[in-house]
Design the sequence.
């Protein structure tokens, strides 16, 4: 029967794949001549990865590059740094409000100058159409600053470059009080010729984000094109570049807590690409419809550029005020977006009320228990009855040990007669699962949780418990290896789970009983490296469950130990 079912499943799956490929899979579209021309123009107007690689053989330090290039200072309450007049690029950004780690006062350095070991910068420009050779500002073009020599929320800057052939290029760059750069690039035509231009913007990054990437969080390329979110991993783009056409949206490169993004001017169809070569990654777009520049006239294009610390309120505010499609998905809320994000707002509310995210987690845990109190009560009462019925269940098992069908019938009759649901004991676990994953996701991805302390030794709820039983929680001057870092909170969680297990009916199967006995130990080891905020949630939930279950067991006169 099993083989037959497998065969049927394979056949049906094959049919589904054939039908999908035939009727629903989009056909492969050959690149049009106009797209080819645009791509050629962009490549000629912006340096290739290969060209840049030649420049970095003798790499110099970040500070040396910054000190040797002409720059304009950037500053507001959230960021500091500079933009380079060499290329007119944003390539030096530091987040003022975030430290590299708990033990350092050094601020997070995000963008780095081109030709440095971790170059990461944003550039904007124009690609030219037609067959005529035009001198365009490139990545090494030196721009001239007109007016302000510092970029602040109150002082925009104006950059200018004259190609000496009748074309004057300008960039007006504005900065808000957070993380938004508004760039208006223009071209004025003082010649007697007409030209075609295609505005573009691109993000270039060498290397990936530091740290281990895990499955629950996307780091790499992302963007919204139309109404569709696209997330592409670095490894996938190294194998094959990603290309898409859209009329609205945004694109960028994301880390766990930080983001660079570029947003094309609305009302223009654009072609977006994610590319990779030699550990250098690019996210770029180019407007597909040419802007015609006639003699004596000018053209312009606006680009919103973000260098963001992914604070939830800030991201949501940008999405709303600027009308950016699904910009809030820059934070990886996951499949349970509709659940995880509201849960964050609730916890954030209690954080503002108490001043401690750990206390906020404790409060939300208690509220969850309160909401599901009636359901949990039903489950625990059923488990209490199951514990009372255990001697009778053992008797039936011995009586009908050679007749499985009869045993099943008698057991079902017993459940029906005593009004017991044998699977009701699963309800408390099932209730916990969505909240467990939601809190795990929220703790891991939200910047607000970063470096937030609880009490005592927990200095960062988004990181693991730093103590270990193998050095007696710090009494022995020895740092155990990572796999031996089983902290105090995971052990408390394991103890609470063991006590909770003792309140539940013992499985009639001895092998099953032994497996359940080792389950708390197993989960303690598994959850030890998880964020301590998650372990706090699980422990508090266990304690509340034990209290509720103990009261119910006492009410039904069931032995609790």
Sequence:
């Amino acid at each position: 029967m099993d083989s037959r079912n497998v065969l049927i499943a394979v056949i049906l799956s094959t049919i589904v794949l054939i039908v999908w490929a035939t009727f629903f899979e989009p056909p492969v579209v050959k690149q049009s001549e106009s797209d080819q021309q645009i791509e050629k123009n962009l490549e000629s107007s912006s340096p290739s990865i290969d060209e840049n690689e030649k420049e970095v053989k003798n790499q110099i330090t970040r500070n040396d590059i910054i000190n040797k290039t002409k720059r304009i200072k950037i500053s507001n309450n959230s960021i500091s740094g500079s933009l380079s007049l060499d290329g007119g690029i944003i390539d030096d950004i530091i987040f003022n409000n975030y430290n590299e780690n708990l033990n350092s006062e050094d601020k997070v350095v995000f963008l780095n100058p081109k030709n440095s070991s971790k170059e990461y910068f944003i550039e904007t420009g124009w690609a030219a159409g037609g067959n005529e050779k035009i001198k365009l500002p490139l990545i090494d073009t030196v721009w001239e600053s007109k007016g302000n020599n510092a970029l602040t929320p109150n002082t925009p800057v104006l950059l200018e470059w004259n190609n000496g052939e009748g074309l004057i290029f300008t960039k007006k760059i504005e900065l808000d009080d957070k993380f938004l750069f508004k760039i208006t690039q223009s071209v004025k035509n003082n010649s007697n010729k007409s030209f075609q231009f295609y505005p573009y913007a691109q993000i270039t990054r060498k290397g990936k984000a530091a740290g281990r990437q895990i499955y629950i969080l996307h780091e790499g390329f992302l963007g919204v094109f139309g109404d569709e979110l696209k997330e592409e991993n670095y490894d996938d783009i190294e194998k094959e570049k990603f290309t898409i056409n859209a009329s609205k949206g945004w694109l960028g490169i994301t880390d766990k807590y930080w983001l660079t993004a570029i947003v094309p001017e609305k009302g223009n169809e654009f072609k977006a690409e994610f590319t990779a070569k030699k550990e250098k990654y690019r996210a770029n777009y180019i407007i597909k419809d040419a802007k015609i520049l006639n003699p004596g006239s000018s053209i312009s294009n606006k680009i919103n550029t973000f260098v963001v610390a992914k604070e939830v309120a800030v991201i949501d505010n940008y999405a709303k005020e600027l009308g950016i499609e699904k910009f809030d998905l820059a934070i990886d809320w996951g499949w349970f977006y509709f659940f995880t994000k509201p849960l964050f707002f609730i916890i954030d509310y209690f954080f503002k009320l108490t001043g401690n995210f750990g206390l906020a987690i404790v409060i939300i845990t208690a509220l969850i228990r309160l909401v599901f109190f009636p359901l949990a009560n039903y489950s625990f009462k059923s488990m209490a009855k199951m514990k009372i019925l255990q001697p009778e269940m053992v008797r039936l098992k011995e009586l009908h040990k050679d007749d499985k069908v009869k045993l099943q019938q008698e057991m079902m009759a017993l459940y029906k007669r005593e009004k017991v649901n044998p699977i009701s004991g699963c309800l408390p676990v099932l209730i916990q699962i969505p909240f467990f994953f939601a809190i795990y996701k929220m703790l891991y991805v939200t910047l607000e949780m970063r470096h937030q302390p609880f009490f005592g030794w927990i200095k960062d709820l988004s990181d693991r418990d730093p103590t270990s039983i193998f050095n007696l929680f710090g009494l022995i001057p020895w740092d155990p290896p990572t796999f031996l870092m089983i902290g105090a909170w995971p052990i408390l969680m394991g103890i609470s789970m063991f006590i909770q297990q003792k309140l539940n009916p013992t499985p009639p199967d001895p092998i099953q009983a032994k497996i359940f006995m080792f389950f708390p130990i197993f989960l303690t080891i598994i959850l030890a490296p998880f964020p301590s905020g998650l372990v706090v949630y699980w422990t508090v939930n266990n304690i509340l469950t034990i209290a509720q279950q103990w009261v119910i067991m006492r009410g039904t006169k069931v032995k609790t130990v």
About this structure: The radius of gyration is 31 Å.
